[in-house]
Amino acid sequence: MNPLIVVLIVVLILAALVVAIYNGLVQRRLRIDEAFAQIEVQLKRRHDLIPNLVNAVKGYMGFEQDVLTQVTQARANAVAAGAQGPAQQAQAENVLTGALRSLFAVVENYPDLKASTNVLELQEQLTTTENQISFSRQHYNATVLDYNTSIATFPNALIAGPFGFTKREFFDAEPEAAEVPVVQLR
User: Fold this and answer.
1) Which class is 3-178 in CATH?
2) 11 phi and psi, to 5 degrees?
């Protein structure tokens, strides 16, 4: 066999391998973008529900204005953090989760609020949305782990660096988001 043909076959095989690896990395990167978009959909739903909940409880909780202000401010910060990347957005969302937990803890002290159909429906919708956010976050983080592993392992690492594939951040829940809030009524 002609040495030129052998070299040409080896070059074609290597080119096909590079193309396959590159396409696989692009697919993984696009899966991350899609998974993050799913988180954003659920966060937007939560952000849209919060003003309704605040308005529903506002009349009952006149002297608990601090809690309502915290929830409103945390929501505004979470909405603003959306453009700052997963780490900053996760941090802002965790603060919002804590503020909502404080609000729900305070609601428990108001029998009229606990009996309000509107408040109960909003709480149920928020709880469902929180579960969906949790599942979306898990899916996103699993996708990021797959991608980050892929760009760090051989032979993909040889392709990832030169073609601009960089490590992605996880959408982590902060440890304080798992803590039960302390509510002190005046």
Assistant:
1) mainly alpha
2) -65, -45
